[in-house]
Amino acid sequence: MTDEELAKFAVVRPYFPGVDIHTQLVRHYPYGDLASHVVGYVGRINEAELKELPVSEYRGTTHIGKLGIESSYETYLHGKTGYAEIETNVQARSLNTLNELNPEPGANIFLTLDIDLQKNCL
Question: Would you say residue 16 lies in a domain?
Fold first, then answer.
């Protein structure tokens, strides 16, 4: 949803009990799969990886870099997980935010690939 659509929904949210919106940050690939052989890909965290990853840094995360730049720079691209402790009433409506830590986005990486060369190799 766009920010405008989220704002419109926020106005009518009281008419939709039990409905809430959760956002998730995703990585953006300006050239799609054109440079995927270098960039790599992300995928769901499997059980073996779950045992190796620091729990506090990957809480609430479902995907990690699996191959290429995505894998090599995973910790750099990942960012920091945030959280909020929210006091609610019996109907699960928010009353008060008790404690909050804002998430920090991962860093951007700029690659110097000859994109025209990549296009011509197809």
Answer: no
Alpha-carbon torsion (30, 77, 39, 112), positive or negative: positive
3-state secondary structure of 112: coil
Locus of tokens 């691209």: 77
The C-alpha atoms of residue 26 and residue 79 are separated, in whole angstroms, by 11
Containing structural domain, residue 68: 24-120
| 3 state DSSP class of 88 | strand
Task: For residue range 47-68, list pLDDT tens digits in order.
Answer: 999 899 988 888 878 889 999 9
- In this structure, what CATH number is given to the domain that contains residue 65? 3.90.1310.10
Please report whether residue 97 resides in a domain: yes
How many domains does the chain divide into?
Answer: 1
- Answering whether pTM is above 0.85, one says no
Measure CA 30 to chain center: 17
Q: What is the CA 62 to chain-centroid distance, rounded?
A: 9
State residue 100 phi and psi, 5-degree precision.
-150, 140
**Spatial distance between the Cα atoms of 88 and 75, rounded to a whole number of angstroms:** 34
